[in-house]
């Protein structure tokens, strides 16, 4: 992508004062640093030099604040009570002043670090303030510049072959609306095209939740996959029972995702057989499931389910199967998208001869939705794919600023480079501490790296004590989700901290 200048607008400091910890940075020339500088993407002193743990976590101040919060809000899933005014860059700070290197990044959703200067500038623009205080119902009352906002941000980084977007609120919402598009596309095709009107039987039966107006169709997903916690998306989420318990679900098919063995070079034949078996199962379900699948939804890397990978050849085979049987392919890039794998979109690693039909996004994009290319994926009538907000202009403006900064600093390329450096360091740890960094995976996938630990939850707790905030997935995986501004110096600090934990648990 060509270099370009941030469209951030003017500052309105009196209306939105900057956090005290970053105010001084904004007065300096924070955008003059070369992307080639290894020390920092921003001026020295922007973020801490290293983690600093002063108290237990949570400490006394955090415990008191959590107790107060628990009176009005469920805190049982709380990871760390955070002071966002003091969190900067790659570092997250808690109520007691503990400073941790954050390689979990709000469940993989922070692209440029806390209190990033470029995003602070965009947030203070007249354009952003207008979007926030006059939040439009986009389907009915889009702003006059909405096409420009989309073209200069969300659509500027659209996956190859996909030139339209439906904007949404969150990842689950993006997936559910993509599923709706798939169902409507299938039925429109069966009727004979967009021009064919609905029958009276279809209209009346839909109000009774019965066929033909409410057809018996499905979305095929994979075991261990995760596609959200909303009502429809839950029927394709298969990662943990706690996500699904007590919620009625559709009887939709699931195929086995190929669980690869590591190191990959030592298990090439077994892994190829596992992928072939998975593709055969997909084809069987497409042909024989009683509720015909309209689409297959898949993550490039199964994130919540344990960071499970498959080869580019597997995904090319999946694309071939969906085209062969007239089924749409939805690639869920909610967690893998926006540069984390060393490509802007993870499916770019696959070298597909034909692009996916839809690509869903959220998290690091700070907005959500799905990309598509076929005009027939736009329903034949208004209000069929609709809700009040249909996304959020403020978040689309923020994503545009993220795209500009990713481009200006070469952060996708940087993440690819730093990921290779970090993977090599972790290979060294795996050699020195057998059994503690098992099934190390993610080579060549940027910083989207994971490994298994037999005492995973203990490992995560001990990491906090040495100043590392890190996350888990699946039953035993430790997943790394650094921000795009994560550099070699941060990788050194991370590996140093992980080695301390490994020594303690050895």
From TrEMBL:
InterPro entries: 4NH2But_aminotransferase_euk, Aminotrans_3, Aminotrans_3_PPA_site, PyrdxlP-dep_Trfase, PyrdxlP-dep_Trfase_major, PyrdxlP-dep_Trfase_small. GO terms for molecular function: 4-aminobutyrate:2-oxoglutarate transaminase activity; pyridoxal phosphate binding. Its cofactor is pyridoxal 5'-phosphate. Keywords: Aminotransferase, Pyridoxal phosphate, Transferase. PROSITE patterns: AA_TRANSFER_CLASS_3. GO terms for biological process: gamma-aminobutyric acid catabolic process. GO terms for cellular component: mitochondrion. Its EC number is 2.6.1.19. It comes from the Eukaryota. It catalyses: 4-aminobutanoate + 2-oxoglutarate = succinate semialdehyde + L-glutamate. NCBIfam families: GABAtrns_euk. Belongs to the class-III pyridoxal-phosphate-dependent aminotransferase family. This is 4-aminobutyrate aminotransferase. It comes from Schizothecium vesticola.
